[in-house]
Amino acid sequence: MEALDGNAIGGLLLEVFGAEMTTATGTCAGCGATAQVAGLVVYLEAPGTVVRCRSCDNTLIVIVDVRGRKCVDLQGLSRLEPAIH
Amino acid sequence: MAGAAVLRRLTWVVATVEEVVEETPRVRTIVLDVPDWTGHRAGQHLDVRLTAEDGYRAEREYSIASAPGEPVAITVERLEDGEVSPYLTQELRVGDGIELRGPVGGYFVWDGEDAAPLLLVAGGSGVVPLRSMVRHHQRSGSATRVRLLYSSRTLDDVIYRMELDETGERVEVVYTLTRDHPAGWRGYARRVDPDLLAEVAWPVDDGARAFVCGPTSFVEAVAMSLVELGYAPARVKTERFGATGGR
Fold first, then answer.
1. How does DSSP classify residue B87?
2. Residue A3 to residue B238, Cβ atoms within 8 A
3. B47 SS3 class
4. Is the model's pTM score more than 0.90?
5. Handedness of CA B229, B231, B233, B238 (dihedral sign)
6. Do B228 and B143 reside in the same domain of the chain?
7. Residue of B nearest to A15 (CA)
8. 3-state secondary structure of A41
9. What range does the domain containing B63 cover?
10. Nearest CA to CA, how far is A56 from chain B (Å)?
11. What is the CATH number of the domain that holds B39?
């Protein structure tokens, strides 16, 4: 499966968080790298949406649709900070 | 509201197809009338959702092809094994309804406020969000110097060709054709490589910003080359799409 980037899940993240999140900054709980969500590695339908760290490949975010509900696992992130508008 | 993320509901609405423009044999632009559209920024996306009779749903994200202030339009390339694009490019007719939500995204956007020169690099249908930026530049009378480097397989695959041939002096369009080119072709005829970028890109000293959109491998090669040319990574914005992704 081809790796995309965080731009591809702007709508999904807006649905889940209620805010524009592609410009949010995430910190990897594994290696400590920080990056804007738009620059993170994204696999669609992996199954579920999987977001990985571009530096160490750690799984940062997993979003799975369970009977119409979005279940969000953020365990791979130590911090996720929306941009100031 | 400084310091706080603005909460916003993203709701699905049914838009009506106003117009269909066949851009190439595999690509069409769909102009939409979207109820309660809040307006968009150049480079933003929208999500399209199709629901089959059995309830199966498929969602895809598409870049908005029109400039801010223009009617919403998307440009869709038909992928032979796609779930959504064959319907959008072959079945959808003027007057039909289509479910969408947006606008989405705040990273890969250009608002036109920048005095620094702008380098746009497109691979294939990655030109779509960049076309929104070019149109925004023209409509807003921006003084920013713009150069678009657009890589396509053949001349027939070039999307928006007539429009891009008539941008005038303020937007310079440079083509490269990677698979086949007509006799007497005077543009580039190879993949975008570091030497080609060195010839086309604005000098780093000008403080140029770059937007790169295309297939993943294309985007990563171009972004790496620009950084090697001296572009600060933060001034190179990237957007990748794959064979099964949007657009």
1. I
2. no
3. strand
4. yes
5. negative
6. yes
7. B10
8. strand
9. 13-104
10. 17
11. 2.40.30.10
